[in-house]
Specification:
It comes from Orrella marina. An eight-stranded mixed barrel has the order 1-2-4-5-6-7-8-9, surrounded by six helices. The protein has 285 residues and is α/β, with parallel strands linked by helices. It is globular and about 50 Å long. It binds ligand C2E and magnesium ion (3 copies). The site of one magnesium ion has 4 residues, from loops.
Length: 285
């Protein structure tokens, strides 16, 4: 998708995101330049074990620090990266940054497991798994320290190809998470056969469920089916204490959302966790 050519930067300063989008021309060349110059940076959003209140890793989320338009969010460039066939290159850079954080992670903090978003189209090229393994191997990181998140709406392969691709990921040792569950085509029935380790329930269910009864019944069913299949449930988009309490009571294992923390740069994530641990220690002292 090509947008209008860029206007003068003075024109876009202080404008809303949609105005910025209109004036942003994310061309193939600008993405290639961005990849070459390492303009794609990562933030990390904490995941919390709702049942124990412990830190349970983080999700790696990409941002693009452009020289011409400032900081862009994934919604402003991911589709274009995909359309220009540059997703595999971006995924490798994001995965490398996630691995670098695992290497640099302070030893006194609980060990770090990171989620990384991948596009389903990356699964069609089986060479990608080897590339990802190399990124990990060169840093002495085990695949079990990485959870690959797949958005179910991006599944392009048929059921059998998907099953084979996910099986390859599991054999390689990666955790596999189904992202935005409930918005796409994967049914609870398919969960029985797909070798996934984690189910990320879409944000849209979370908020509706704590306020309305019908979505709550759906959510309850998803959590219970996943539990019986020994698949970890994650609720994304937890924004309020009501959301958190509600999901905890339903037996959801892990929570993620603005209520706990926004996505943070690596150094801020470490500070955030230290602060959180100090608060927990003083509560229990
Ligand atoms: P996602 O994987 O479902 O990630 C969750 C998105 O929800 C993130 O948006 C996150 O900042 C946002 N979020 C987290 N907590 C809350 C909350 O409490 N309330 C609300 N309203 N939003 C919350 P972000 O970072 O803009 O990413 C959007 C999407 O872009 C991601 O959705 C993912 O599908 C895609 N994406 C992000 N990074 C990558 C990447 O490295 N590779 C690929 N292929 N896709 C990525
Ligand atoms: Mg995700
Ligand atoms: Mg998600
Ligand atoms: Mg979502």
């Amino acid at each position: 998708m090509l947008l209008d050519p860029p206007r003068k930067s003075a024109h876009t300063r202080g404008c809303s995101v949609s105005a910025l989008m209109e004036s942003t021309s994310v061309t193939q060349e600008s993405i290639v330049e961005g990849l070459k110059n390492h303009e794609f940076i990562t933030c990390f959003q904490p995941k919390i074990d709702l049942q124990t209140d412990q830190f349970s890793g983080a999700e790696t989320l990409v941002r693009w620090q452009t020289p011409q338009w400032g900081l862009l969010q994934p919604g402003q460039f991911i589709d274009q990266v995909q359309a220009y066939g540059l997703m595999d290159a971006l995924t490798c850079q994001v995965l490398a940054q996630a691995c670098d954080l695992i290497v640099a992670w302070p030893r006194d903090l609980p060990s770090l497991r990171l989620s990384v978003n991948i596009s389903a189209t990356s699964l069609q090229d089986s060479e990608n798994i080897n590339r990802w393994r190399e990124i990990l191997d060169s840093r002495w990181i085990l695949p079990s320290q990485i959870l690959l998140e797949l958005t179910e709406t991006t599944f392009v392969a048929n059921d059998l190809e998907l099953l084979e691709a996910l099986t390859r990921l599991r054999i390689a040792g990666f955790g596999v998470s189904l992202d935005d569950f409930g918005t796409g085509f994967t049914s609870l029935k398919q969960l029985r056969t797909l070798p996934v380790t984690e189910l990320k329930i879409d944000r849209s269910f979370i908020h509706d469920a704590s306020t309305q009864s019908r979505p709550a019944i759906v959510l309850d069913s998803i959590i219970n089916v996943a539990k019986r299949l020994r698949i970890t449930t994650v609720a994304e988009g937890i924004e309020t204490i009501e959301d958190a309490t509600y999901l905890t009571d339903l037996g959801c294992k892990i929570g993620q959302g603005y209520y706990f923390s926004r996505p943070l740069p690596a150094d801020r994530l470490i500070l955030w966790l230290r602060q959180r641990q100090r608060e927990q220690d003083s509560k229990h002292a």
